[in-house]
Design goal:
four-stranded antiparallel beta sheet; Rossmann fold; alpha/beta; globular; 25% strand; binds adenosine-5'-diphosphate; 10 helices; six-stranded mixed beta sheet; 2 domains; 259 residues
Length: 259
């Protein structure tokens, strides 16, 4: 198991609302876990706990068999890549320079990327199909391409797990679909992937593990086919949702009622 969360409780300091209550699940390498839940349920909070940025006040998180709370940020960063939600670029770095900054945690303050690092960076860009953007300014590329550049920057660190906070937010429909394909191909290469989303259809498409976090802080986890039901979705989103099987696409889709 790459992650083992056992009975995680979390409350923000000074707040009376407990965001996470006894959240438990396991994640193996090559698995995708989609975390669903309404706005403000605590999905990002959970990812921050998994990245070691927030400390749960009860329960344990094991990362690759070790107690996360006893690992240094550098040790965590060598295993976990975290792609946060919004990234507003402030400098016009070339894409390849932006990506190579991903190796910075390994290098120390005065270290410079080696020729090997640069080769690795170009390989990752190729793998993601964005090597043609290498010389372009990060400010000039589209939102979908930026997201891919951010992923590339994480992959050059050679992590075992990728945590994505809403990787499809701000992307148009086509780019959302391409992002899901990319996530699935990463899992097939052996990365464990955790993503948060507002869109239950994405969990239906990825068809792996899912966790539904409700506003009370409880999370139901399991195979997405089992836990994503009309009842569970309608309850968590407070909306009368239907799951329909689309014959010609051979998949289930989540459909909201007419207005
Ligand atoms: P989600 O990602 O599911 O939309 P979040 O994890 O961002 O939810 O937030 C869960 C709840 O915690 C929200 O009510 C939010 O306002 C609150 N919250 C988030 N960050 C902080 C913080 N730093 N201090 C106090 N409360 C916070």
């Amino acid at each position: 198991m790459i992650y083992k969360l056992s009975d995680i409780d979390f409350t923000y300091p000074g707040s009376t609302r407990q965001i996470l209550k006894k959240v438990s699940f396991d994640l193996a390498e090559g698995q995708i876990m989609e975390i669903l839940g309404p706005n403000g349920a605590g999905k990002s909070t959970l990812l921050n706990c998994m990245a070691g940025l927030l400390k749960p006040h009860a329960g344990t998180i094991e990362l690759d068999g070790r107690d996360l709370s006893k690992m240094s940020p550098k040790e965590i960063a060598s295993l976990v890549a975290y792609v946060p939600q919004n990234h507003t670029p402030s400098f016009g770095y070339r894409v390849k320079d932006f990506v190579i900054m991903g190796v910075a945690p390994k290098l120390g303050i005065f270290g410079k990327p080696s020729a090997e690092d640069e080769k690795n960076c170009m390989e990752v860009l190729e793998e993601l199909g964005i090597d043609h953007l290498a010389e372009r300014s990060y400010l000039e590329i589209s939102g979908g391409e930026r997201q891919q550049a951010m992923i590339a920057r994480e992959l050059v660190q050679d992590p075992k797990v990728i945590l994505f906070d809403e990787p499809t937010a701000h992307l148009d429909y086509g780019n959302q679909h391409r992002m899901l394909k990319l996530i699935r191909s990463m899992s097939r290469k052996g990365y464990a992937v955790v993503i948060t989303t507002h869109n239950p259809d994405h969990a239906l498409l990825l068809k792996d593990r899912a966790g539904i976090l409700d506003k009370e802080g409880h999370m139901t986890c399991g195979p997405s086919e089992e836990i994503i039901t009309e009842e569970s979705l309608s309850k968590v989103y407070d909306c009368d949702l239907r799951l329909v099987h689309i014959e010609e696409m051979d998949r289930r889709a989540c459909v909201a009622p007419k207005l």
